[in-house]
Amino acid sequence: MLNLLETQEISSCGRRGAGVEEGTFLPTCAGCIARELKACPGFGVSGGRLRPLEETGGVKSAVQTFPARRQILHAREFDEVVPVICSGWAASSTVTQNGKRQVLAFLLGGDLASINYLFESCSGRTIEAITPVTCRKFLRSDLQAAALRVSLFFSLMGKALAAERQESDRLNLDLHRRPAEARVARLLLSLLSRLKRANKADGDTFEFPLRQQHLADALGLTAVHVCKVMSRLRAARIIAVARRHLTILDRNALEFMAER
Amino acid sequence: MLNLLETQEISSCGRRGAGVEEGTFLPTCAGCIARELKACPGFGVSGGRLRPLEETGGVKSAVQTFPARRQILHAREFDEVVPVICSGWAASSTVTQNGKRQVLAFLLGGDLASINYLFESCSGRTIEAITPVTCRKFLRSDLQAAALRVSLFFSLMGKALAAERQESDRLNLDLHRRPAEARVARLLLSLLSRLKRANKADGDTFEFPLRQQHLADALGLTAVHVCKVMSRLRAARIIAVARRHLTILDRNALEFMAER
DNA sequence: CGGATAGTTGAGTTATCTCAAATGCAGTGG
DNA sequence: CCACTGCATTTGAGATAACTCAACTATCCG
Lengths: 260, 260
What we know:
21% strand; alpha+beta; three-stranded antiparallel beta sheet; DNA-binding
């Protein structure tokens, strides 16, 4: 049995203080569905420890941390748990018999891996940490109950579903209908805009922890080919990569490339 | 304003009779979500006309018919209407700026184009009739209300969402990760199994109204290449096509082909 | 420093595309 | 019944984007 009630130390976030207080949130919590459903207790601490859940008004759950490369959802949890990424980068992917992998989405702070998890598990998908990840897991039944209490239930669900469907349609369109350069360009632009929204971009520069294999798996290419495309982009001074950070030098060129 | 209350003559289905009676359903209604939500009044007729909706216990809506190639959902309806295919073949697709089209799903009788429509419109997607189609359109708000009255709401939603997500993941995996033959094979097998479930297949033979362009748009190929693949399949006596009907002659071969 | 992982580069192969012309087929009007 | 029109399908030739394989280099981390 999972111990979702367990509270854990967290060092980097949440201010110290005494007594019961409002939960504090990471910047990335802003658009998080768990927060909008009023289900997330946040990172409020009292005396350096997470406050007991009864006091937060949230749904029972605990923050967990995962090192890079670690699987975030284990087989036995699949049935009952809804995972939400609080910070770090993760990837949600499927695999074929022949061992080919398709990354369906890169997950950033505040992302629910898929709204489907609220209804039932996304069997066949696995979620893996790319960087170290902090993540909160809710019991599905609890989150469903919380969801139904929120008056905007249908509109919240609608927004979440629509956003996800749109992403998935976009992916379907991109794969095999656009040349490799366009796919790469689109992915980079989409990452930039998501990170900007979460205040995690410094101008046109952002953290970029993805391996070329990740890109390849997301874009339906081989790592070798991704390398060649990225090299061309660098040679053309459209992007620059240094110390796991990526800068978009010529956004117009990249946007032009993204079409067709 | 849409006149969803309008009742229309239907000739092919529904038994004639007097007075109020149970709505009759097409064979394809069996797994239809509108029926499971107890929202569909069915095809019951009284005196040759569809019964008034107040008597059916269903949600207001009317059966509409569309000739082949006609768009099923019009721009102004997008906001408020949930379409369900009752009979015939339709396609749900998106288009890029460059005019390329991706068919996301072929819709058969009993199919809701996407469960997303229950929450909000799938902007960017269009639904078109391939064969003549009969289709029922529900007001979103009515269907939402009906949904919440059903105790199995979450599990029904879950099933529908999961099925759709799985289809979409499969599509994502197939595009650009499998060779053309495998994609064609997978599509044919998937159609056969869906049609079998709806009792619309005669052994391994089924109606096959799709143009090669439809296949191409669904599989991320060109029509020319689809033609070549289909020719090879016919030459190898794996399938046979005649008068808009397709027979799978060697299912093992096709299933083998579908993997990799 | 050594070992592992990730990225780069080049040569040769192949699946799929583009273009273009020929054929077939169904419906229409004379 | 025929010629005519508009699609859909077929076929071939050549072009190309992306792949595979394999060796080499750079980077990271203990």
